[in-house]
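Entry 12.
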Amino acid sequence: MTRLSLKRVYDPPAETDGTRILVDRLWPRGVSKDRIDLWLKDLAPSDDLRRQFHGQLEHWDTFRAAYAAELGGAKARAALGMLNEKRQSGPVTLLYAARDEQHNNAEALALWLASQD
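Predicted 3D structure (tokens):
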């Protein structure tokens, strides 16, 4: 598989980003569609899980475990297939809107993907 990177959706696009994929359930405010190549909202945590974790760093490991369980669902599996197709054809950047660059769903997804390889 090719390189996978992470970036806030509000950061400017770069040529090295490759395919830019939004992995949030909600569309980020003020972001135009031309800055995003693909929106895989089925790879985002459920609304319930997102609300439970929101900003609570002490629950990061619990969030990651619950999110990994959600990635086993049918819709998430289909979205993972699309993500893997893009990864086979070149670099991919997972986009997220969270302010915390180390504790967000894209980071959790990247860690999960690394554990699956």
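Annotation: The chain is about 40% helix and 15% strand. The CA atoms of residues 37 and 70 lie 24 Å apart.
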